[in-house]
Amino acid sequence: MKKFAMILAAGLMVVGASMAMADAPAATPCKATKFETKLGEEACKKGGQEEAKKAFKAWVAEAKKTDATIACKSCHENLAPEFKLTKDGLEKFKKLGGK
Fold it and tell me: What's the pTM value of the predicted model, to 2 decimals?
């Protein structure tokens, strides 16, 4: 009986874990289809918009060491869902070491 209870418990854990994974939302894909930056392309391939946001926020944190005024809106006209760049956004990114 004890063996049966252990097998049942293990089976329920497997079913529960697979159901939890099925309920997880899919990553929101990036809107961009052509990438000007390696950072953006790699992040979008890895995990869509959420991963790209994390990657660029980390980059901004590093860039602030060089230019304390840099922020998301320094390079983007708007944020989610389009993240449209300003006319000089890519230039600013590259000037501060972005790739």
Answer: 0.70
